[in-house]
Write a structure and sequence with these properties.
Elements: E1 8-13, H1 19-31, E2 37-42, H2 48-58, E3 61-67, E4 72-77, H3 144-147, H4 152-161, H5 180-208, H6 217-240
Parallel strand pairs: 1-2
Antiparallel strand pairs: 2-4, 3-4
Helix pairs in contact: 4-6, 5-6
Length: 249
């Protein structure tokens, strides 16, 4: 291996390639500058394949391994820009989701939102820095004209504020006991409603995974709709079983 000067030494001891090890690497690279060399000093001599893979995925340059006797030195040069200071969104206010914070109420929600999401966006939303090597998920709905609606953030906020609990917000103990024939008819209606609500639950779920997260408000709003439908299913199921009759046909 060629000799390289390094800027940061990261001592990982007996750590195997794991979330803990890669989290330490992520933190070290976030504070490093472009072209800095990070040295991983490890007691493990067989983690080179994993380090090479992580380095390639993150868009950096793996420089090699050196035997230090009882320890091993793995050196990686930072190539891609992913440190805090280089982020164009560092220190800027969020341009997007409506919140209960009065300071953000008047933001233009469509400001700086591209007509097409970046191809290399991965699972990132607006304002995040895309690293080199980020996987492409090829979202079917990546154009603003296909998914965007101006008031969607407001609708999302309203949906959150109108949440209710199907277990505690309904006085289940006050439901009157009806004639068995009428009760069975009600349970038949509940059965139909549960089937209908599953349709309402699955349709937005079908689209969520196709929407590019660059347009973050849309999948979040659809998820709030799914939460509503889930509660409807819960309520109709509980009513059907309130007196033991249960689901019908």
């Amino acid at each position: 291996m060629n000799n390289h000067n390094h800027c940061i030494s990261l001592f990982t001891g007996n750590l195997y390639p794991s979330k803990e090890l890669f989290l330490k690497l992520e933190n070290a690279f976030l504070t490093a500058n472009i072209n800095d060399i990070i040295e991983v000093v490890s007691l493990k001599e067989n983690i080179e394949i994993e380090l090479r893979g992580w380095t390639k995925l993150k868009g950096h340059l793996y420089l090699g391994r050196e035997n230090l006797g009882a320890q091993f030195s793995y050196k990686i040069q930072k190539i891609s820009k992913n440190n805090f200071e280089s982020s164009p969104s560092w220190g800027k206010e969020l341009k997007g989701i409506e919140t209960s914070n009065p300071k953000l109420k008047d933001l233009n929600l469509s400001h700086e939102i591209l007509a097409k999401a970046p191809n290399s966006n991965g699972l990132l939303t607006r304002g995040m820095i895309t690293q080199e090597g980020t996987p492409s998920y090829d979202f079917a709905l990546s154009h603003k004209e296909l998914v965007w609606s101006e008031p969607v953030s407001v609708l999302y906020e309203e949906g959150k504020n109108l949440q209710w609990n199907a277990t505690t917000d309904i006085a289940w103990n006050e439901i009157p006991k009806l004639n068995p024939i009428i009760e069975k008819a009600i349970c038949q209606i509940m059965t139909y409603l549960v089937e209908n609500e599953f349709s309402a639950l699955y349709i937005p779920g079908k689209f969520i995974s196709q929407i590019n997260p660059y347009y973050m408000e849309i999948p979040l709003f659809l998820s709030s709709l799914m939460n509503d439908e889930a509660r409807h299913i819960e309520v109709f199921t509980k009513r059907a079983h309130a007196f033991g009759a249960g689901f019908q046909y």
